[in-house]
Structures are given as C-alpha cells and as structure tokens.
Amino acid sequence: MPKEKKAQKKEDPCWKGYKQAGMKEKDGQQVPNCIKKPK
C-alpha cells in the first residue's frame, strides 16, 4: 500500500507577524519564504 501524505494545514506556515511571499530553496528543498508584515 502506498503511504499517504499528510494533508497540509491551511493555516499560514509563517510565524505571527510574518506573511508568506512565495517559496525559496533552502538546503535543496522548497520552503515558504516568510517576510515581516509592514506595520
């Protein structure tokens, strides 16, 4: 049986006060690019 991937949460993957601005590559993997929200 193939393993099922866990469903991603629809929540923001960034910390409080940050927003996601696309994806970036880190150590060969795609990760969220979180930037600080303007005040």
Outline, from the CA principal axes?
flat
DSSP helix count?
Answer: 0
Low-pLDDT segments, ≥5 res? none
- Which percent range fits the helix content? under 10%
Q: What radius of gyration results from the CA coordinates? A: 13 Å
Structure in words:
- The protein is mainly β.
- It has a domain at 13-38.
- 0% of the residues lie in helices and 44% in strands.
- The protein has no helices and two strands.
- A two-stranded antiparallel ribbon has the order 1-2.
Question: What are the SSEs and their pairings?
Answer:
Elements: E1 18-26, E2 29-36
Antiparallel strand pairs: 1-2
Attribute tags:
mainly beta; flat
Task: Please sum up the structure shown.
Helix content is 0%, strand content 44%. It is an all-beta fold.
